Amino acid sequence: MERSALYYTPFNLRLYDLFVLSISNTLAWRCPTRSTLLPFYLKHVKSSSAHLEVGSGTGYYPATAAVSGALSKTRLLTLCDLNPNTLAYSRRRIARAGYTGSIETLEHNVFHPLAHSHDRDVRGKYDSVALYYLFHCLPGAFPRKATDVFASVAPALAPNGVMHGATVLGTGVVHNWFGARLMAFYNKKGVFGNIGDSEEGLRQALEEAFEEWEVTVVGAVALFEARKPRVIKD
Ligand SMILES: C[S@@+](CC[C@H](N)C(=O)[O-])C[C@H]1O[C@@H](n2cnc3c(N)ncnc32)[C@H](O)[C@@H]1O
């Protein structure tokens, strides 16, 4: 398995929310989950009838959305990840959170085209596609890796759909002492691949792939949303 997905063992998944979503997001990346990332996520999933969660991790965002009622109109939730541990973990958590629609899982490398790689046709199927904390895990740099991922995933977006997400930038932002050390350690281990990821590079990839898009930087994290894919390569 790719190193970007390798470390999500059942044991590490139990520590993920505390270490990443609570401690690192607040103290290292300065982009708090509860006051910044979660409201951004909820705003975009609310009222979507079919949602695709790419890089599902522990399922914190969809599970919290289910508890808050933001998924009450969502009849289909598809979890896509390269690691079967995260798919099983997030699926269980979302079901326990009271989500009543159907949950499906796709074990899939996001660099490979999504539309044709499974026996289901996913083209134009989702009105919300989430990519949270995925890009900074992937090897390579912006714009290239984001262009490749957008080319794989954008065909799954419905005509009025929105793609949204967040990623820790590696360059062009200020990293505090804790963030700089954590980033260096994760990049050395291959958990992160974001040393060359800049806001400018992300903007280039979004401009290439979408007619409408927006990026906001909070601390060391870029939050992005995009609509109307330009070229559907599938
Ligand atoms: C840092 S976690 C993010 C989890 C969740 N989205 C969040 O924000 O809490 C990154 C996730 O991306 C998955 N992942 C890493 N590389 C991938 C790839 N090439 N294709 C699909 N998923 C991948 C990992 O297995 C993991 O679940």
UniProtKB/TrEMBL annotation:
<dbReference type="InterPro" id="IPR029063">
    <property type="entry name" value="SAM-dependent_MTases_sf"/>
</dbReference>
<dbReference type="GO" id="GO:0008168">
    <property type="term" value="F:methyltransferase activity"/>
</dbReference>
<dbReference type="InterPro" id="IPR016584">
    <property type="entry name" value="MeTrfase_VrtF"/>
</dbReference>
<protein>
    <recommendedName>
        <fullName>Methyltransferase domain-containing protein</fullName>
    </recommendedName>
</protein>
<comment type="similarity">
    <text>Belongs to the methyltransferase superfamily.</text>
</comment>
